[in-house]
Amino acid sequence: MTTPYLTFTPYLTFTVDQKTADDLAYLVAQAKNGLSDADKKLSVAMLTEVYCALLDTCFGELLKQVNEKHDIKTLAEAQAVIEEIQSKARHYMGWISGFLATEKVIKVIHHFDSLVVKAEPGSDQAHFLKLPISVALSEKASLNLNSLIDGSSTNIEQGIEILIEATDAAIVHVVEDPKRIMKFNLVVDKTLGGVIGLLKGVGYKIIRKLGKQLPEDSYVMVATHLGSFVVTK
Question: What mean pLDDT do residues 106-118 have?
Answer without folding.
Answer: 95
